[in-house]
Design brief:
With 586 residues, the protein is α/β, with parallel strands linked by helices. Helices cover 42% and strands 20% of the residues.
Length: 586
């Protein structure tokens, strides 16, 4: 594994540290966030983002038209149907807008596509199901989908339905609806325009901006309901969607997440508290972005993967704690079921690849199980990428009405840094019934008869693009430190950089000449705990996940790559190192 360290200019570190009155290490970490543009003003905004820093929502193209149409629906008491995606972003977006419109006296209905029956996004079958259940709405609001749903929007228009789309996905020129109000920053942003702080908002963030704009507009008319609404009360849901959707935690994404996590900690929503209880989060516990990503988010997503994503929406809108507890328990059980399905598929996929034979594997991997649940394909693909560090396509069964034609298999792909999946699949597209996505993640459907050829062509495509081998796994070092620096002041500096996530990864620090104490303890045969003398009688404890197969020497100088965080146990908080890699002492 390569270690890559690219320090900013020393004079820039010193200048920023003096200007902000912070340590050189914190200044270096700030410069790593955006080396080309960080100045004192930007750094202060990054360290202490406030709601007052939010840009005027009406600067966003499409916002005024969207607000005017929703206000008209409220004034005319029109029927409103909200159609949200089935992931955390779609769920929290739907909950936020339904909750707000109810405050204004509306009674919006809401619907989520059935992942296994209808596939992702808007479909004519889902629209017909909604109309059959609730009648033809006057206003249809699509959340986290719809940017490329020209056919479906035309269908709604033919039925006499007005359409508003709030979405953050990229637009395809020949699929973009013409007869809809579109709120999507990516559609209207061009290279000649300055990048706004809200450009990379997910849909939950865009809905938060829409709520801000709606409340602002209604306050101008002296609406007593609007005067009583705190826009900040919707930060908890916006933060959940932002973290779970893996958008970069910069600009307003960072502001929403940082403030929203604090709002989550004191949220008054019974559904949130029930989710916390089901996730093992204790009352008063300080939350991390990772708690959303690994504890709360999976329980919401499990319903959309295996059942009906209306369940977490109902939970988060429920005002009665007893009912919320039952719903959260059901989501917990679904998540356990999802984990078991995921474990089985992962183990069967590993068996296909041949554990321990990584050196002989092709550059791109394709695994297929006719009985695999494709709802876990993306998760399994991510785990296989971590295991084998190669691009992976995981293909499983498609339900008869899952959006794929009868008889087709459906799957997901994940990649490694530097390998663009969209480009690698281009030579394979004649084999695929349907495919699309992003450089690091794609979805596809295929006739099972073509999977063998896909396996060969996919590996060949990557091999030809990287004749010298795939990019090696690399550890990006944030800074080099001494063990005796890791103390309360150091942790306070790190806390100012939170939340960590996409676009703001948790720093990895290098420690030269570290000597581990002879107290290494192996856990479950795959992990181990260790201790490091930091000087002055202070001993730091740490953990190494899935590294028991390469134990470092003790009482011998080695170089460490570590993350540093808090470990909370039984109400006690201690500093804990997480070993990322080690090398013989340099």
């Amino acid at each position: 594994m390569n270690w890559n360290y690219e320090p900013p200019p020393a004079e820039a570190i010193v200048r920023l540290a003096r200007g902000l009155g912070v340590s050189n290490t914190l200044a270096e970490l700030l410069l790593k966030v955006d080396p080309q543009h960080v100045d004192e003003e930007q750094a202060r905004f990054f360290l202490d983002p406030k709601l007052a820093h939010l840009d005027d929502p009406f600067v966003m193209e499409g916002m005024k038209a969207a607000v005017d149409r929703v206000v008209l629906a409220l004034e005319r008491a029109e029927s409103i149907l909200i159609f949200g995606d089935y992931d955390v972003d779609g769920v929290t977006s739907t909950v936020s807008l339904v909750h707000l419109l109810r405050r204004f006296g509306a009674n919006p209905q809401y619907l989520v596509p059935r992942r296994l029956d209808e596939g992702y996004g808007l479909s004519v079958s889902a629209i017909n199901r909604a109309i059959e259940a609730y009648g033809r709405p006057d206003l249809f609001i699509a959340l986290d989908c719809g940017t490329n749903a020209r056919r479906e929007v035309d269908y709604l228009n033919e039925l006499g339905v007005s359409v508003v789309i709030v979405d953050h996905h990229q637009a395809k020129a020949d699929h973009r609806p013409e007869q809809a109000i579109l709120l999507n920053p990516h559609v209207f942003h061009t290279e000649d325009k300055p990048e706004r702080t809200w450009l990379h908002l997910c849909t939950a963030g865009l809905v938060f901006k829409l709520i801000h704009a709606l409340v602002k507009t209604r306050r101008e008319t002296k609406d007593p309901v609007a005067l009583d609404i705190r826009v900040a009360d919707y930060l908890d849901l916006a933060a959940m969607g932002t973290v779970a959707d893996l958008v970069p935690l910069r600009g307003e994404n960072r502001l929403i997440t940082r403030q929203g996590i604090r709002s989550l900690e004191r949220s008054r929503r019974p559904g949130i508290h029930a989710l916390f209880e089901a996730s093992g989060i204790q009352p008063g516990e300080t939350l991390e972005a990772s708690d959303i990503g690994f504890r709360i988010g999976p329980r919401i997503n499990a319903s959309g993967r295996l059942a009906d994503a209306r369940e977490p929406i109902n939970l988060l809108l429920n005002e009665h704690y007893g009912g919320c507890q039952e719903a959260a328990k059901a989501l917990n059980e679904l998540n356990s079921e999802r984990q078991e399905i995921e474990r089985q598929v992962f183990e069967e996929a590993r068996a296909q690849l041949g554990d321990g034979e990584r050196g002989t594997l092709p550059a791109g991997l394709v695994v297929y199980g006719p009985d695999w649940h494709h709802g876990v394909a993306g998760i399994v693909a991510s785990r296989l990428v971590q295991e084998y560090y190669r691009p992976v396509l995981v293909i499983g069964r498609a339900e008869p009405d899952s959006g794929a034609e009868p008889g087709l298999a459906k799957g997901s792909g994940r990649s490694v840094a530097g390998v663009n999946l969209v480009e690698m699949l281009e030579p394979c597209k004649s084999l695929l019934a349907k495919w699309g996505g992003h450089p690091m993640a794609i979805g596809l459907s295929i006739d099972p008869a073509h999977i063998g050829e896909l396996r060969d062509r996919f590996a060949q495509s990557i091999g030809e693009a990287f004749p010298s081998g795939l990019p090696e796994r690399t550890v990006q070092m944030s800074a080099w430190i001494r063990p005796n620096q890791i103390a309360v002041k150091f942790m306070d500096d790190l806390d100012r950089l939170r939340p960590f996530g996409m676009g703001n990864p948790k720093p990895i620090f290098g420690i030269r000449g570290a000597e581990l104490l002879p107290s290494i303890k192996i856990m479950k045969g795959v992990h181990f705990r260790f201790q490091l003398a930091a000087g002055n009688g202070i001993v730091l404890s740490g953990v190494a996940w899935r590294m028991a197969d390469r134990l470092p020497p003790v009482n011998t100088p080695i170089d460490l790559a570590v993350r540093v965080g808090w470990n909370v146990w039984n109400g006690n908080r201690t500093i804990q190192l997480e070993m990322v890699d080690w090398k013989p002492g340099s």
